[in-house]
Every structure is written in structure tokens, then in C-alpha cells.
Amino acid sequence: xxxxxxxxxxxxxxxxxxxxxxxPPRAAEFVAMEARWRAAETAAQEIQARRNRxxxxxGAAKARGEDAAPILRQVAADKDAQAAAEAEAARxxxxxxxxxxxxxxxxxxxxxxxxxxxxxRLVRSHGTPxxxxxxxxxxxxxxxxxxxxxxxxxGKLSGARFVVLKGQLARLERALAQFMLDLHTRxxxxxxxxxxxxxxxxxxxxxxxxxxxxxDLFRTTGGYWLIPTAEVPLTNLVADEILDERQLPQRFTxxxxxxxxxxxxxxxxxxxxxxxxxxxxxxxxxxxxxxxSEEEHERMTAxxxxxxxxxGLAYRVMLLSTGDMGFSARKTYDLDVWxxxxxxxxxxxxxxxxxxFQARRMKARFRPxxxxxxxxxxxxxxxxxxxxRTLIAVLxxxxxxxxxVAVPEALRPYMGGLTAIGGGGTDx
Length: 428
Prior knowledge:
The protein is an alpha+beta fold. The chain has two domains: 4-100, Helix Hairpins (Orthogonal Bundle); 117-421, BirA Bifunctional Protein, domain 2 (2-Layer Sandwich), CATH 3.30.930.10. It has helices at 4-9, 11-20, 27-63, 69-100, 139-146, 151-158, 167-186, 201-207, 231-235, 293-311, 357-362, 387-397, and strands spanning 121-126, 149-150, 164-165, 191-192, 198-199, 218-219, 225-226, 242-244, 250-259, 278-288, 315-319, 331-339, 344-353, 365-367, 375-376, 378-386, 405-406, 420-421. Helix 3 (27-63) runs antiparallel to helix 4 (69-100) and helix 7 (167-186) packs across helix 12.
């Protein structure tokens, strides 16, 4: 959430930021809303001050033997007027907060302007896509031919956009997640967390999914929400807290199932595992000092890249444009992995710096070692990586002409020494 005072003091900068996001100007609207709210608050305070003064006059009048009834009537009337002014101020503040909750984060200065992904900027590429002596197959064809990827039975169980993995592919997905967790915890200093996957409204509001993106989520009949990403519970670990500056940075990682309705993805990626309602992901979250968030963004992105490097997968890093960037992000790098079956790069991770945007929504602050008061932390999140999409990348990049799939060397310790999938039974 943005700072109302900053909007009031920088109306032109606010409207320029909205324009970069493809939104109409709204500074004048917020300035007017704040003026009405402050007027109602001032009225309530002035009435309270008059009540205090009149209360003293009642005692003085009685001491002089005078009739205090007119003053008592005025105090009673002022009590009702004050309650009405306070109620109006509360209503106006709620109106402001509701409006602010729909405004996306302000893009960083170096984020390219553009309406969509066509304006994204290539930052760097790594690795060379593999060359095949045969026409490479898509992951779903590879998995179904091996008899280890079953969309038909998943459809019977749950409908479209689900899959059943079996045998060596089920183990490969688990191996990928364990490999990622070990890398991030042992080498990069992230603390492994096993968070709830059911959360309350407040948690999703804190990270920016609510209220605007409710249609993209699944909700239980009991009022809980299934998490779309572990970013939600991990970031909210510091919600409503005041940390000591010495506790920063805090870095968390988690491997969880994720659930998305894909409400806006009708007709897109209907085949295979690219876009599913349920998938698993290893998430990275950092809670940092405001002065360190930019360098932490580069660090987090490098951590996600290292997974791809060790798996020997070609990828590129893209700086997202204002029109392709997420609601809560001020700057985002996407990692796109090469998929031979699609002859294209596809997103496998997004690493975002959210600045203090989420912290304001969560009321997450820290107390500086020097100076008074508190400051909002900065939050960052990234996929390290999306496990299902990494499984896709391994299948397509390591496929062989005979239908088997080589196991990347980094994963072999997690696969019981298995060097290839297929050709040797469906179980390890």
C-alpha cells in the first residue's frame, strides 16, 4: 500500500507512476478524500475540546449557585455531534484505505515502460540450448509415453489442469525440491519453513492478492484461502511486528503446494503441466533493511539462477516492463528457461522487490539502532524455483531419442544414483 502523505506531497509523481502502469490519474481524488477525512477529524477534536471546556463550566456554575441545565444540554448535544463526526471520520478513512488497497506499487525508475511482455528487457542469457539429432518432444508426450504422467486419470479425479505423476517422475519432482531446498539453506543462508497452506484474509491482503485478485484464488467453505504461493505465509511471518534492526535480514524458504484458479488463463497452456490449478514451488522470501533491498534483489535472483546453472539448463533473465509486472512489485526479474519441446523460453521464476509496499499493508516495521521511531521493512520474494516447470525443463532438455531421459548429475544423489528415467521400470 502506498503512503497517503507521499501522494499528497507528490501528486504529479504519483500520477506519472499510475500512467506508467497504464492507469488514469488519481492524485486529486486522494487529496480531496484526505481533506474531507481531516475536516471530519478536526470537527470531532474541536467538539471534544468544547465538551471539556463546558464540563469545567458546569462545576463552576454549580459552585456559584447558577442553573447549569443549559450547559448540560449543550454537553449532551455535543456528545452526539462528536460521535457523528468520529463516525464520519472513520467512514472516510475506510474509504481512503479501500481505495489505496487497489493501487499497485510504484515502478522503480529503471523499470522499462510498456503495456505488456513485449516491452520486457533482456538483462543476460546463460547457457546454450541443446542440439538434438531428432525432433524434440514436449514434456507431456515424454511423460505419457513413459507411462509416468497421467492427465486422463487426473481428469477423472479433479478435472482439467491437474496431473498424476508416478514412479520415477514422482521421485524426480521430489528430488528437484529437495535439491533446491538444500542449495538455498546450506549455501545461501535461507531458513527452511513449513508454513500453513490455508490462510486468512489478512495474510492475502498483506501481500497484495486481496482484494483485487480474489478470482485467481481458491477459497474453502470455512473462509480460509488456499495459498497461491508460499510468499503469502512466509512474508506474513513478520506481519504486525516490530523487529530490531539487528534481526535483519531475514531469509525464508519453503516447498509447498500452490493453488491458483487460473481465472484469466482460459485457453492458454491447456496441454501438459505448464499452467495448473495445483503445483509445487520452492519459494524465497527476504525481509530486509530499506537500504539493502536493491542488493538483496540481485542476490535473490542469483540464488534462483544457480539452480538452473547446476541443472545445466539454458535460461535468460528478463527485466519486466511496467505492464507485465505484478501488483505488489516495484521491480521484477523473470527467469525464462529454454524448453525444446516448445522451441521457446518460458518463465520458471519471478524475483520481485516490493519495497515497503507489502510492509505497509502488513504493518511490518523495524526499530533502527540509531534514531527514534520505527521504519517499514522492505520485502522481496522469488521462486527458487517452480518445481513442476523445472521438471518440465529437465524432461525436455535431457530427453533421448529412445524415449528415456537422462538424470542431471546434480540430481542423481537424490534419485538413488539413477542415471536415466525409463527403460528400467517405473520405480527406482
